[in-house]
Amino acid sequence: MNAWINKKSFVGLEDCTWFYNGAEAPPLQGCLDAVAEYFNYRGKGPHGRENNTKIEQACKVNLARLLNGKPSDIALLSNSSEIISMIAQSFAFNKGDNIVINDLEFPSGVLPWVLLKQQGLEVRVVHHKQWQVTVDDIMEQVDERTRLVMTSHVSYLSGARLDYRSLYAQLKKTNALLLLDATQSLGAVPVDMNETDFVVCSSYKWLLSLHGMGILGVNQARTAEFQPRAIGWRSVHDMFGSERFESVKFHEDARRFELGYPSYATVYATRFSTDLLLEHGIDRIEQHILKLGSKVIDRLLICGYEVMTPKDPDNRAGNISVVAKEGEAIARYLSEHNVYVWGGDGRFRISIHVFNDEEDIDKLFHALESFNNVRESAIK
């Protein structure tokens, strides 16, 4: 593996074992340097703005490469929740129309649609079977009145990976669009924006960047006429045009979804982090994550844990979730021993990324064994 994967490239990893990537990644030293570069350019007036434009375009080029799209297909907003809500509010739903979601979705992929029930939208919820939702499960709920299917590529809850390519192949035979949330996958496993209509992702998890940016990929094949119902000066062709008090002319590409300036500190950081991800190669990163994940799952099963995440590597990515009523207590105890996992919602989640190694796994299981010993002693 390339030298940049060394844990010394991250701030703080010398003091902890980090399996918290599904919540947020540890900060890269290079991202801090990139933010400093942004601040330095802020002091250069118009020259700073020129550099912002250059770095933003470079960031979009990188994101397009990761998504197998074009830079003009990429829009940068504030966060994923904003993007999903914008898309939800942009539909002209008729009473009796429906959208399809599932019960493994993060709330940001649920709440905007529930709000629209007030307007007569039917929200169909596909329920998981043993912590997985299949393409067939989803398509059973799709009919001629379905306007959109919203699903995550990888579930924040169970860690299961959905075959969205197969889903999209079937949805293209209908009038329903596909909105794919790749927040738990982009940067860890391959994602192809040509196999969905919209793809959304956050900047601060598997992309190894900072908070402050939501990424939208727009596949123009079926969405060229789709216009947002939110607008800002970045959305339009000529913000100072003589007709601006009379009419609106959106950009034809993904920029029509952008309202104002993005968080340029995050843009600079994401340009740096995506440079590194592309340098190493997402295919190789995926292989590393899945290999370590198999070892974690095997050890969890030997220890008697109930693993929610599929064992088959094709059906998972970096998140490995474990059924645990004491999920929060486990995460809190492990954190006190400098091992970071996410806990709550009846589970704890181990999220493996490119910098994790077998030594981390040993530390994780040592901490879990310690928790179990303490709990057994308390019971006695």
From TrEMBL:
InterPro entries: Aminotrans_V_dom (IPR000192), PyrdxlP-dep_Trfase (IPR015424), PyrdxlP-dep_Trfase_major (IPR015421), PyrdxlP-dep_Trfase_small (IPR015422). Keywords: Aminotransferase, Transferase. SUPFAM superfamilies: PLP-dependent transferases. It comes from Paenibacillus baekrokdamisoli. The lineage of its organism: Bacteria, Bacillati, Bacillota, Bacilli, Bacillales. GO terms for molecular function: transaminase activity. This is Aminotransferase. The keyword Transferase applies.
